[in-house]
């Protein structure tokens, strides 16, 4: 019995999403191809791995057992490939970097440094919300990630980079309105909030839910750059990175509520079992040059 690792990764991704279409989208493949991969794994194992309930897929008992073993196998395969990469003394291979919530320009510096130091390495960058990026790290789709987040995953190794400042921002024409707004008035304004962002949910909770206030959310988004363009058009307010809107605030195109501020850590994360992977080491070495204060942190509660 032979199991194709690509098909096995498809199974793991669909199991995490509990949905064939979403799993296929994560893997950038067609739904029919993902379905064929699942059928192939089931045929190889001689057992059913999923049952369909309403609009989602649930693992059978056999599927739950296979999922645990599949994740371990995929991780071992990644470790094996990392050993092979250094057999001739040169680092080569494909490094997949996840970037969540617009980590900033230094990611470009890191990628450039990796390529200059190791010209046989090719890099693929995948931009996704932080929650999706963490799922992709677990399944092995992504090798290493730069994202907003706390060290909350016991299976990951995290490196703290810095704290990112966030402000409540709106169109420039709302400057006086934002300047004098109470917390209640601020919460009642039309809000744009991201989907699947643990970081934004936590910060907004600290600013508003902690005060017993509920936001008047009218727009949901999954792309911060697009959201800022809608912000400039006057659709409402949003929590935005202070450094990314500073020039527009100075120019008067955007305005901020001076009393509504929050911070969230920016970090690098990878599977702990892959700490000796030469591709990941190359990325971390380059990152340490761009972020001299970079330091490993223990998972929350550890």
Ordered list of secondary-structure elements with their pairings:
Elements: H1 5-17, H2 20-26, H3 31-45, E1 50-53, E2 56-59, H4 61-85, E3 93-99, H5 106-117, E4 121-127, H6 130-139, E5 144-148, E6 156-171, H7 175-180, H8 183-188, E7 190-194, H9 198-207, E8 216-221, H10 224-232, E9 238-241, H11 242-251, E10 254-271, H12 278-290, E11 295-297
Parallel strand pairs: 3-4, 3-5, 7-8
Antiparallel strand pairs: 1-2, 5-10, 6-9, 6-10, 6-11
Helix pairs in contact: 1-2, 1-3, 1-4, 2-3, 5-12
Give the % helix.
40-55%
Rg for CA atoms: 22 Å
Class computed from helices, strands and strand pairing: alpha/beta
- N-to-C CA distance: 40 Å
Individual helix count: 12
Shape: globular
Mean pLDDT: 88
Compressed to H and E, one letter per element, the order equals HHHEEHEHEHEEHHEHEHEHEHE
The CATH homologous superfamily of the largest domain is termed Periplasmic binding protein-like II
Q: In this structure, how is the largest beta sheet organized? A: 7 strands, mixed
Tell me the fraction of residues in β-strands, as a range: 25-35%
CATH topology description of the largest domain: D-Maltodextrin-Binding Protein, domain 2
Task: Assign the CATH architecture of the largest domain.
Answer: 3-Layer(aba) Sandwich
Which spans of ≥5 residues are poorly predicted at pLDDT below 50? none
CATH class of the largest domain: Alpha Beta
Tell me the domain tally. Answer: 3
Tally the beta strands: 11
